[in-house]
Amino acid sequence: MNYHIITLGCPKNSVDSEGMGGILRARGHRAAEAAEADVIIVNTCSFIAAARDETLGVLREVAAAKRSGQRLIAAGCMAESHPDIVRAVPGVDAIIGTREWTRIDELVGGAAAVAAPALMIDLTAAPAAQREAPGDPASLVVPGAYADWRTTPIQRQARGPSAYVKISDGCNLRCAFCTIPSFKGDMRSKALGAIVAEARELVAQGVREIVLVAQHLTDYGRDLRVDDGLARLLDALCAALPADVWLRLMYAYPHGITPRLIETMARHPQVCHYLDMPLQHAHPAMLRRMRRPPDSERTLATIRALRHAMPDIAIRSTFIVGFPGETREEFDALLAFLREAELDRVGVFRYSPEPGTAAATLPDPVAPRIVERRWHEVMQVQQAISRQRTRRMLGRTLRVLIEGNGTADDGRPIALGRSYRDAPEVDGQVFVWGAPPVGTWCAVRVVRTSDYDVWAEPLVGADDGAEVLPPPTHA
Fold first, then answer.
1. How much is the pLDDT for 282?
2. Based on the number of CB atoms within 10 Å of its own CB, is 171 exposed (0-12), middle (13-18) or buried (19 or more)?
3. Which among 43, 287, 410, 424 is most buried, taking Cβ atoms within 10 Å?
4. Please, which residues bridge with residue 350 across strands?
């Protein structure tokens, strides 16, 4: 049977989609374009209202284009968080949630599944009448058994020189604005040995960068009763993988960044001097309302420790503006924090109330026009900071992972790649004059910078293992 998977949302969803594809291939099914597929699987996103709107739009579009006999399965986050809404989309034949996707072959592979287009997998073990409403703080441990994504044998399939590896799923935190624990449940870590084996399998297929992802990366191993689990995992991965493979860390909760983790990152050449550290805000009162640690001084101390150990480290973060009750004083504290922290890259969300979250019940909503104005203001402040941070790379030598080739406006060949400073999809790019092959390393010298991107010339005869030389200093 032919299948086609459409992935919406974050890199963790991409890993799950690849996992579903691996299970289906192991059962003898074949990946195909949507027009030739017998079943189309949409791995949905439920992060915020806009993501749910996009999910419903995609489901309706795919359903409208279905040919006779073709089936549509909605999988993943929205299928679990809002099953009734997803079921109600005309043309959706089945749903399967975040904790059950390893059973995808039950929907696709058997004659019974084909003969029963209304088949639904129950998303919880408890009857509906016994389930507590999302948003009730007591309800945020999802009922039912957690899916065995951690132990189900799945063959990874490289799709480029970079690949995501999910080391845990779910989250033990209860941030006031976040719905994820209500449908993902508490954090569950994948065994260290299984992660190493998955990474080795990808590298054997030509992957040159492993991006470790989780909802809460720095909490890895807590449920396994492992102290400093992420540092131990990095040690194991660096011992098992070739010296020229990058390891990149995404979604690291700041208070989980321990001295041992910093030392481990600095000690291993394979670990990119890069950290994605979502912070959300900087004013203590605002952080308390968000149910986040209200200690920005501790966060600044962590940033200083990271830069002391790795002077060239690139730090990315995300923030929310317009959270209920945000005053001008609190917003100014965020701007002051950004100016002091001098983060390399920042993403900013406009707050939107999510039904079922504690934040949705808070008083004093911020007027939309003020939210929009603050979003533009914070982006302008950060743009200038990012420009200065990127300018520091001018004249320096970088090792670049080549991801594409093309032609410049003047007809010259130009390649597209990323340095250690650039995570896939969310950060800047390195434009390299010439045509180095995709999937290879290229040593380059930076000749031009913009706010987020750099342009570079290849260094003929240079060691492609070169990184930033000399290391920048932090003013």
1. 97
2. buried
3. 43
4. 321
What tokens were used for 269? Answer: 């050449």
Give the pair of three-digit tokens for residue 358: 């504690």
Per-residue pLDDT of 172-205, as tens digits, reads: 889 999 888 888 888 899 999 999 999 999 999 9
What number is the average pLDDT over the span 111-118?
A: 32
∠ CA 170-257-469, nearest 5°, is: 120
Cα–Cα separations (whole angstroms), residue 48 to 178, 281, 288, 321: 9, 18, 21, 15
160-391 belongs to which CATH class? alpha beta
Helix (H, G, I), strand (E, B) or coil at 347: strand
Q: How far apart are CA 83 and CA 80, in angstroms?
A: 6
Tell me whether strands 314-321 and 271-276 are parallel, antiparallel or unpaired.
Answer: parallel
Can you tell me the distance from the alpha carbon of 389 to that of 382, in angstroms, rounded to the nearest whole number? 10
Provide the CB-side half-sphere exposure for 308 (13 A, CA): 9
Q: Convert 190-215 to b/e letters by CB count within 10 Å (16 or more is b).
A: bebebbbebbbbbbeeebbbbbbbbb
pLDDT at 469 over 70: no
pLDDT digits (tens, 9 = 90+) for 81-93: 899 999 999 999 9
One-letter amino acid at 282 equals A
Say how far apart CA 371 and CA 262 lie, in whole Å.
35
Sign (positive/negative) of CA torsion 75, 170, 9, 130?
positive
Q: How far apart are CA 297 and CA 313, in angstroms?
A: 19
Parse the chain into domains and list their residue ranges.
2-123, 160-391, 397-458
**What are the backbone angles phi and psi of residue 321, rounded to the nearest 5°?**
-115, 150
Residue 137: pLDDT band by 50, 70, 90 thresholds? Answer: very low
Task: Please state which of the four CATH numbers 3.30.420.40, 1.10.3720.10, 3.30.260.10, 3.40.50.12160 is assigned to the domain occupying 2-123.
Answer: 3.40.50.12160
Residue 109 confidence (pLDDT) above 60: yes
